[in-house]
Amino acid sequence: MRNLIAFFRRFRVFLVFVLLQVFSLSVYFTFLNFPRSQYLTSASKVSGLILTVQNDITKHFNLSLNNDKLQKENIRLRNRLPQSFQRMQNGWAKINDTLFHQQYEYIPASVINSTSTKRNNYFTLNIGAKQGVVRGMGVFSDKGIVGIVHTSSTHFAVVKTVLTVNINIDVMIEPIGLFGLMKWDGRDPRRGSITGISNDLKIKRWSKVVTRGGSGIFPRGLNVGKVEKLNPVEGKPLWDVVIRFSEDYRTIQRVYVIKNLFQEEQNKLELLIPEDKEE
Amino acid sequence: MNIVVKHIIRFIVLVAAQVLVLNQLEIGFGIQFMVYPLLIVLLPFDLGIIYMLLIAFVMGISIDAISNTYGLHTSSLLLVTYLRPATFKLFGPRDGYDVLKEGNMYDMGTRWFISVFGLMLLIHHLWFFTLEIFRFDDMLYVFQKTLFSVPLSFLFCLLFQAMFVTKPNTR
Fold first, then answer.
1. What does the DSSP 8-state code read for residue A277?
2. Who is most buried in A101, A203, B15, B101, counting CB within 10 A?
3. Is B20 within 8 Å of chain A by CB?
4. How confident is the model over A14-25, as pLDDT tens digits?
5. Is the pLDDT of residue B59 over 80?
6. Residue A157 host element (H or E)
7. Would you list the domain boundaries of chain B?
8. Which residues of A touch B61 (CB under 8 A)?
9. Are A195 and A234 in contact (CB under 8 A)?
């Protein structure tokens, strides 16, 4: 017993160091692998408050650029309003539309904290569970997709952006409809890559890349970017497709959170798929 | 000024500068500014290492909580703090440190400060980027980030000292 106490006395500095170090590293690696812990994020109350105050000041830096973006989007939407169409045939009765049900709803939000040079970049939004944001919802801006909601507190939400290493969003290359998974290599915030595309297919440069909408997080056809380059993968019959994002994630401010009204139904149905048994 | 108040003010200013200003500067080439290890080198010479570790832990946690890095800053700051006594011993004067002085560049001289704090920053940045990237085939990128970031962080620390550390009266 005395030896034990002597041991603790002798190595107490090292033990304290190891204890604290193990704590911080375990927090870090739990987050990388199982992103579900709720503490130590910018969605917490105090840090959310600090970031809100900061954003109140810094949001004006890109004001004119963002105004331009919003104006462009307004024009696009205004073009779709009934008022901007001329009625060609009069005297038709209006009937309640039963062919279309609304599947996606959008919640506007602004980004109050963002990074773009780290290995894994997270954005903090100024809306949270009170506005109906829950984990797993998609986020996009008027130019392209942004990411998936990672955690949400009462008033804030943290988004795992496209600029994280294992984001894996299912996308397709537009005119030919090829599917692939989009990844990010962790370096250039302007470019990502698509894996799993067979190299016997011809892909034109600058063809559009949009979301596939398979998992119900994003609707089909949201902009992602354009094909910039095709690199052969050594030893495999695959292309590594480099795409250029249509959104500049370094200056982003206004985003929309997607609420899929049929998500639960889709998940329930897909649970019925029998799992592969590897024997 | 009371020495405790002085360090608390430094703590707040350094965390605020790191989180509100330096984290937002993104100038490419993987450069990231990190100035908060400065607090550790400025702590009094006769402070116990366990207290220093606790201070480093609190500081790292508060930076991590705001900048969504989940323990990365804490881990690297703890490592630097743990290695502080060894580093000081390595470059220390022959008859020990004068407890009335402080580890800033005015009290201890520019040469001492560059070697000690440069080494600490190098260890800190290397550990930080290694953990952040955590892949062996990207080690070159880790070195690139470290080599570019350390001098710039160092410059910011010099600037911080010029602003917040009082120069001793030179007779």
1. -
2. B15
3. yes
4. 889 999 999 888
5. yes
6. strand A157-161
7. 3-164
8. 24, 40
9. no
